Amino acid sequence: MIHRLALIALFSIMFNAYALDQSDSGNYAVVHRDGHITDFTFFVSHDAGQWNVEQRQPDGSWASATCSNDCMLKESKALDLERFFSENEIKETHPSCVHNEAFAFCRQDDILRPGEKEYTLVALMMMERPIQIQLKRFDSGRTDAQGRAQYDTESRKVLNGFGGWLLVTSDENWQSKWDTQPETTPHFKMAEIIAKGKPVYALTFFSNPKLDDHGDADISCDIDLLKPDGSASFQQKNAICFKGALKGQPNYLYLSAPVVKFIGEQNDPYGTWQISITLKDNIGHTSLPLRTSFILQ
What we know:
Layout: H1 2-17, E1 26-31, E2 37-47, E3 50-56, E4 62-64, E5 74-75, H2 78-84, H3 87-93, E6 96-99, E7 103-109, E8 117-123, E9 131-138, E10 156-159, E11 162-169, H4 174-178, E12 193-194, E13 199-207, E14 216-226, E15 232-245, E16 253-255, E17 260-263, E18 271-281, E19 286-296
Parallel strand pairs: 12-19
Antiparallel strand pairs: 1-2, 1-9, 2-3, 3-4, 5-6, 6-7, 7-8, 8-9, 10-11, 11-13, 13-16, 13-17, 14-15, 14-18, 18-19
């Protein structure tokens, strides 16, 4: 018993000496067992004393894995580390973690390779025992204002610094969600499968357009809504998306003027509908073709 208490005390000292800090914030990808880097990526941040983990979604957006009091990350103590790692791993790598009920995010400092840091995601739920998943920290050439890695997808792109994002949402309160502080990004519910008679809204956002000598932006867009057979349901060329002065920093996210509202009517065909919007920065001479889809059933 005394030996065990001494061991716990030792682990506690090690925990304090090797605790995670701000330098551990960044972008991480899961490493497959065969060694290749997967597309399963996370962003780890530390703000106001709280650790946060966000997972990149297929559309390029980010979803929090630490969204409420039930899933907030807390510092892992000595007994927690004993559950996540073997005694030898604790002695040889001095792990330090934060965790919730579902997972732990950990840094390990190998005593045989001073200065080198290894990172691990430990899966805790629905497992007979914790499962360690190797992570690879990476530096992205392009990040958003929070430092999260940015990737081009069909619906979200950046070219010459000009960014665009097209999404279809079922949020009928999208306007109130959007009317927040300009430096914040609201979260919309993506509409992937919709029923007839239910409205959805195609929203197009832009960021960092070129400005003229008066500080104004000039953005137009081409809009195409295609039926499942590829025929046109709606088309508009050179619509005014935004023209004038920006109400904030150029790298903030701005909503373009045309919001396409779609309600599937009785005679509309079932299947996959595609919406394409090409954002055109007329001052920066940059075009961003964006595309997304939804299923009417």
